[in-house]
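User: Hi! I'm working on a homework problem where we have to compare a predicted structure to a textbook description. Could you give me the structure for the chain below?
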Amino acid sequence: MLKFIPALPHVALITLITLASAGCQKERSYPVYRENPAPKDALPIVIRVNDAPVDVPIPKVFVSYEIDPLCLPPINNYEGVQYAPQQQSVEFPVQRISETEFTTTVFKDGMAIADYYGRGPCTWSPSLVKTSFTFAIEERRINAAASAPVRKIEGDRGSTTYVEKVLTPRIPGQNPEWAWTLSQTMFEKLPATDRQSYFPIDISQRIEGEAL
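Assistant: Happy to help. Predicted structure tokens:
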């Protein structure tokens, strides 16, 4: 004859779940990733904004780096998820060279190679150059973001993101507000008449001796 285990009281079950969740959270502590104090692998960048409906502010520029997954701790949780941080962003200074053009030098070796998890040195790969503009429309501020894969910048000299000229937020009531943007692929699918409603942000490699 089968024997059925009596169900735990509701309160006791909640207590067990709470304790288990708290225990999992305590286990998830990870080392602080460090920037490379002396990077050498430079990648000069130029950012151009064309036909913007308002004055163009100096953008913030970041590089997103991806850690080698082989150096991360083994996945041993019930969810089968790698909770250790796998990306890190580093901000680089930007210089204005005209009303609509900016330059910066980012570094592909911007993160420190170190034994963060006791599994050998963790190497990093630069994945994206990301820019963020905060446009001012009277008393209102709205952000627009553009990005370019590092491999694309090095390969065919860049990438273009298109921003909707009316600079309305993607989500009503959003705080902070972010404008609608399209990738180059999506932009090229638009009818010619609709393309006039967007302005481009170009991110490309700055070539030595290039006229800016």
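For your comparison, note the following. Strands lie at 42-49, 60-67, 87-92, 95-96, 101-107, 124-137, 140-149, 159-164, 181-183, 198-205. The mean pLDDT is 87. Good luck with the assignment!
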